[in-house]
Amino acid sequence: MLNMPHPARATIVDVARAAGVSRQTVSNAINSPERVSPDTLSRVLQVVEELNYRPSSAARTLRHQRAGAVGTELNAVTGTPSEVALPFLTALTLAAPGHACHMVPFASREAFPMLSGYQDMVRRRLVDAFVLTDTHPADPRPDWLEQAGIPYASFGRIYDDSSRVWWADVDGSAGTSAAVAHLAETGFRTVGFLGWPAGSAVGDDRRLGWLAGVEQHGLALGPEAAAPQSLSQAISAAERLLDGLAVGDAVVCASDVLALGVQQAALARGWRPGRDIGITGFDGSATAQLHDISTLVQPLDEIAEHLLTVVHDQLAGAPAPTQGALFLPTLTVGASTVTTSMKGTP
Amino acid sequence: MLNMPHPARATIVDVARAAGVSRQTVSNAINSPERVSPDTLSRVLQVVEELNYRPSSAARTLRHQRAGAVGTELNAVTGTPSEVALPFLTALTLAAPGHACHMVPFASREAFPMLSGYQDMVRRRLVDAFVLTDTHPADPRPDWLEQAGIPYASFGRIYDDSSRVWWADVDGSAGTSAAVAHLAETGFRTVGFLGWPAGSAVGDDRRLGWLAGVEQHGLALGPEAAAPQSLSQAISAAERLLDGLAVGDAVVCASDVLALGVQQAALARGWRPGRDIGITGFDGSATAQLHDISTLVQPLDEIAEHLLTVVHDQLAGAPAPTQGALFLPTLTVGASTVTTSMKGTP
DNA sequence: ATCGTTCATTTGAACGTTCATAATGTGTCC
DNA sequence: GGACACATTATGAACGTTCAAATGAACGAT
Fold first, then answer.
1. Could you report the per-residue pLDDT of A65-91, keeping only the tens digit for each?
2. B59 CB below 7 A from strand C atoms
3. Which residues 25-44 on B are within 7 A of strand C at the CB atom?
């Protein structure tokens, strides 16, 4: 089996030879340029360019005892994957080079993740830390990882224990509150709410923002309803909700799929979204974009940046922050709250 | 800065000492068990378990001159990311351990990918090869990589040059043809088509399957229309299309979004999908699932498996295959072609 | 002239693994 | 009994990098 020869890759010794210096000087030129005299620096860097040298990450990992990589689990169980999973992974991947690391996804077909999967990756020195997603109340992973001494950061609050601070999340309440503000500005006067069945921490939070927003802007509190994250059930719930609303009212929703349900139910009874009824969703998902629904876009870039900082700090032994971090979503306006024929003050 | 001590990780020498053998014997016990006598083997493996030893991938990479990793680019440019991007990445990630490797995603905000990004990852020994996605006619990447001697495999045909064989794709024509067969079985007699504007290789392929299917099953050829991958434009095109169809007819679509457009247009004129009009989409995307549209699900697991085999073979210097590989999509039936009240023969 | 100080650079060692090869023991055949 | 084949285990070296410590040179201050 004649092994395909990799295109000749220059090593640090090749560069050293070509520049007439030692290994270490090349290493310094790259990692601590201030330690190298200006003329040797430029000479070395030029050779680096000529030979297209890049330090081997494997050798670095071996030497530093640090993989320079962060693992993250992809949900592979059949069912509805989170609508923001890919954009979030993309945000992490984009932010990683700024933290001198890269992402390593992993997945299993087991319904529930197992610690051993996480542990193995660390033991094999494939990753130093993890970014968790879809963290839910009673999620065992924060406990596991903490006891195993494995750094992590979670996208989504960690509910069990308020002493856990290694997370970042979207400020749902502020988001729906901002949605109500937008509806008020646009001219809607009564605002209802379509959420998830009570008990979901994320959903309850978003509901509170609706209540606060309606009060703060002196609007009329419309009815509320709940449905799970399924379009058909969202439509059913929306139909009941619309029975209690009139043309000119609005509905704030806890997710984009729920908002889509309201949109479909409205269309079914001939109400034009954005004109006859205002609808806002939550998450900034592709679904909202596709259906032109106003939605609260999660600041995934900021969150990814923050989470990588958090794991980096843990690896560096920096003191833990005092609390998790909340980030504000931003409203993206679609046709579901404003149409070309602007609503005037009646 | 007190560095957080990694939980003590056992090395191969620790295992060797504890088992009373040499490094190499431990290595053999793990990599070539047949070279080790049965009793030493079991003794060593037991110690491996006790100490929870896992070989350092960094040391292996350094020694083998092979990263054991495959890179893949995430499309980070704003716009509509492919609906199957995440499921496909998940499929790759699931298949990777079977090929003794892991995936490394990367991304940039540049509109067009640059070779240098790919080259750097190889030079840093972060990855050995790449899986390309969204390959389009005149895509420069296959050329680049081939000239740089970097192994790759593409999800999606490589159009420029039929001598390129390192790809796998979905058999679009067979897919739409199967969709027509399903519609025929279900009782539809006239079948139209909603595709993308002519010139898209993927779209043209899927259109041919519709034509062939209609002929093969002796159905009536309905009208056809085209729209880009945007819901509003799909709806407009679908409205024109439906004008030329009657209740009881069906439409095969080149994508799930287009199918959604037909569904929405049908609902708008009071036609019940699955009963009054049959609709099939393509891709098995979350959109189709959400809206309960019959769709042709891409066999992503098979494709991922195949692509990893392809890059592995290249790395091993195996002879190139004679052609790319096509995989059949499978039809998932939703409410858009069959409803609870089964269509009988009239 | 001698001694320290500082700066730029070099050298030896180590990170953990596996390849190539050597050493050891175990029979087998004449 | 000795030469040979074979199975099993052990040793040295190398992959490419960076840390810690050593060397050498230039410069003042004494």
1. 999 999 999 988 866 778 899 999 999
2. yes
3. 27, 30-31
